[in-house]
Amino acid sequence: MGESAMDKAKGKAKEMAGQATGNERMKSEGKVDQAKSDARKAADKVRGKAEGARDSMRDGK
């Protein structure tokens, strides 16, 4: 399980625990953890595409 997937699962668990206990702060922290996971996943995808483009430019010389 990747780091972003673990953050997403941790965030979902926090959100559900916060919802079950009525703890708005924990619920919000869970949503933030999930958003960070999504951002990390998107950044990794962009990084991979940039590296691929760089590599194809090197091979073209």
From TrEMBL:
<protein>
    <submittedName>
        <fullName>CsbD family protein</fullName>
    </submittedName>
</protein>
<dbReference type="Pfam" id="PF05532">
    <property type="entry name" value="CsbD"/>
</dbReference>
<dbReference type="InterPro" id="IPR036629">
    <property type="entry name" value="YjbJ_sf"/>
</dbReference>
<comment type="similarity">
    <text>Belongs to the UPF0337 (CsbD) family.</text>
</comment>
<dbReference type="InterPro" id="IPR008462">
    <property type="entry name" value="CsbD"/>
</dbReference>
<feature type="compositionally biased region" description="Basic and acidic residues">
    <location>
        <begin position="24"/>
        <end position="61"/>
    </location>
</feature>
<feature type="domain" description="CsbD-like">
    <location>
        <begin position="3"/>
        <end position="51"/>
    </location>
</feature>
<feature type="region of interest" description="Disordered">
    <location>
        <begin position="1"/>
        <end position="61"/>
    </location>
</feature>
<feature type="compositionally biased region" description="Basic and acidic residues">
    <location>
        <begin position="1"/>
        <end position="15"/>
    </location>
</feature>
